[in-house]
Amino acid sequence: MATFVDHVTLHLRAGHGGNGCVSVRREKFKPLAGPDGGNGGHGGDIVLVADPQVTTLLNYHRGPHRSSDNGGPGMGDHRAGANGEELELPVPVGTVVKDTEGNELIDMSEPGIRYVVAPGGLGGLGNASLATTKRKAPGFALLGTPGIERDVYLELKTVADVALVGYPSAGKSSLIAALSAARPKIADYPFTTLHPNLGVVEAGGNRYTIADVPGLIEGASEGKGLGLEFLRHVERCTALLHVIDTATLDPGRDPLSDLDVILGELAAYPVPEGQKPLLERPQLIALNKIDVPEGRELAEFVRPELEERGYRVFEISSATHEGLRQLSYALAELVEQGRVEAASQPVKERIVIRPKAVDEGGFVVKVEGGSFGNVYRVIGAKPERWVAQTDFANDEAVGFLADRLAKLGVENALFKAGAIAGSTVVIGPGTSIVFDWEPTLTSTAELITAPRGTDARLDGGGRATRNERREDYLARMDAKAAARAELLTERAAGIWQEDGGVDMTRAERDALAEAGAQVETEEKGE
């Protein structure tokens, strides 16, 4: 059964917010004393906490599904619902949190760091909070928003000052047991160490940690053996200690070739951006197992050549503790130098404030093609949250949503994107709420597409008023009088004659007769 896990995928579900309450206070002689519905409680957050007492992700390997409590619903008499309890998940120091796409969210490299990985949903407002001077008794309340549901990837990178590197069975576990109080499993077969072991060493008033990690073989940087599992835990170490077996019985191996293979794998492993490459960090060499006569002889033989390469070399024996004191003091010196260098570096900023632009509307409208015409999708935190808070079974709540969207400028943005009355509008990603857009009469003049001075939305098909009918009748009478006068003028000019000199239609003769009768009447009146 596994006892150490350094990478795991968590499936998280934060608590949902509670719904607001619709209630009207009733008192004696006051059946409707005003709204008193309380707000819903907020859902519980899921928080990752860097805990020095935790050394493995084993608990999350066995139980990857975690959820926090939901918020309670609001109640009458202005009683708010209870907030959901926050769920804290302790993780080892050095845990890197990534999303499903591999993007790093946070590096929890220091004890006490807290990170809200899944925020809980917001509680809905009750009708008491929605009351205004114009809407004194709202008959609706807002629903609670759902909590965030997401998957995150946790990757543990051991935080230690010194990493012991070397071939399997080189004596790394024996060395950490001899230098510290750690008691790792020790055996005489390769890959005995399957997970990192940490030990604390005190030397010359300095205290530092050393990490015993799985052995390294040729091709480890390409995934052979436990190479990648090993190299991940070396990224954060200040110094490296090469533990070389001088008493190996494997054919074709010697201290120099072993060192060259290890250096080649360290050089091939890419470290994260901003970190020093592995081969540029301080390194020491420990020629182990000199308690064996052949091992001591070989260590004395290769030591001059290693020193010519620029390494400090120590001949040690984990079994008899020979040379361990000098080695521990040398490691303490390297660690102290690394700490001084790190203290001189500028402090890493952890909080980045990105103010919102002044002209940012908080949403965008995307035009998507569909089988029955364009689909206009509105993407934004506010519109999506407002839709999630709306009870679509309540007409008053739907009208409140329409007012909020109009004030945010969604209608103007839809018009600019080319939407017309009846267009399909979707708010939110995926298969969200679908609307048939009907522009309101209170929208701005940019929505008016009729000729200037008119508005097609205001044209009514109702019955004309008395004044309108009178004006229409007088206009028709004026037109007839003008036509008669024109005919009389043409007759006086000799353009046509009444006896048939000019061919006329029946309508023209009737109009001429009517005009002549009117002229005679006027002459008699004079």
From TrEMBL:
One of its GO terms (cellular component) is cytoplasm. InterPro entries: G_OBG, GTP-bd, GTP-bd_Obg/CgtA, GTP-bd_prot_GTP1/OBG_C_sf, GTP1-OBG_CS, GTP1_OBG_dom, GTP1_OBG_dom_sf, OBG_GTPase. Mg(2+) binds at residues 173, 193. One of its GO terms (molecular function) is magnesium ion binding. Its EC number is 3.6.5.-. Signal peptide: none annotated. Its main location: cytoplasm. Its cofactor is Mg(2+). GO terms for biological process: ribosome biogenesis. Residues 62-82 are annotated as: Disordered. Keywords: Cytoplasm, GTP-binding, Hydrolase, Magnesium, Metal-binding, Nucleotide-binding. Residues 355-439 form the OCT domain. Pfam families: DUF1967 (PF09269), GTP1_OBG (PF01018), MMR_HSR1 (PF01926). Residues 160-336 form the OBG-type G domain. An essential GTPase which binds GTP, GDP and possibly (p)ppGpp with moderate affinity, with high nucleotide exchange rates and a fairly low GTP hydrolysis rate. Plays a role in control of the cell cycle, stress response, ribosome biogenesis and in those bacteria that undergo differentiation, in morphogenesis control. Belongs to the TRAFAC class OBG-HflX-like GTPase superfamily. OBG GTPase family. Monomer. This is GTPase Obg. It comes from Microterricola viridarii. The gene is obgE.
